[in-house]
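Sample 3 of the quickstart, ligand S-adenosylmethionine:
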Amino acid sequence: MIDDKTAEKFARYMKKYPDLYQNLADIVKKYVTNAKPVIIDLGVGPGLLSQELHTQIPNATIIGVDPNKKMLSLAQQNACFDTFEARLGSSENIPVDDDSADIVVSRFSLTYWKDQKKSFSEMFRVLKEDGCVILEVINKDFPVWRLFLIKVHMLFNKAGADVTKYHIDVYKDAYTIDQVEQFFFNAGFSVVEKEGNRKEWKFLIVGKKK
Ligand SMILES: C[S@@+](CC[C@H](N)C(=O)[O-])C[C@H]1O[C@@H](n2cnc3c(N)ncnc32)[C@H](O)[C@@H]1O
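Result:
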């Protein structure tokens, strides 16, 4: 698990890239069908996505879940609005009632999950009928030589060695879009959107609880 200092540095570095969170929040907004949606930000990290979701969907209740206490305390600082709640938990044990959430969104957390089968069935459990899981995921098909360019970019932009290592090391645990689609199917979801190609470092995939 990431140590406290690296978590703080990660939060500082990611604040330089608000557009990454804005773009994902735009996509989440597209899937909102309820006037007061309940959205779970799974692997909430420092809460930057939750804050952006609040800006774009102010009526939403947002539950940020993470197994890392330091990340949760950063999330409480960064996502400072009344309808945000930080809960200690994980993808394998989501601390949310059955059939209670409209959307689960997770940005760059999947590769850290220990048990994909359990995680996908947990997401299925907490979602209401027709609820969606929106995942932004590191792409296993991304070429290694281009990964080196990302490393150089991060170091050049003062991410620091620890944050760069945290980001780059996880590519070894990455999945292809086909593998993630299979996780969805195995848990009973249908896949309603896929975006990204082999050359990109990330992809987006959306599953719906039928
Ligand atoms: C790269 S960070 C991304 C944080 C945030 N989603 C963002 O994009 O800024 C990955 C996050 O996943 C969390 N994480 C690790 N294992 C997890 C698990 N099993 N379930 C949920 N979150 C997990 C980490 O603690 C960390 O906060």
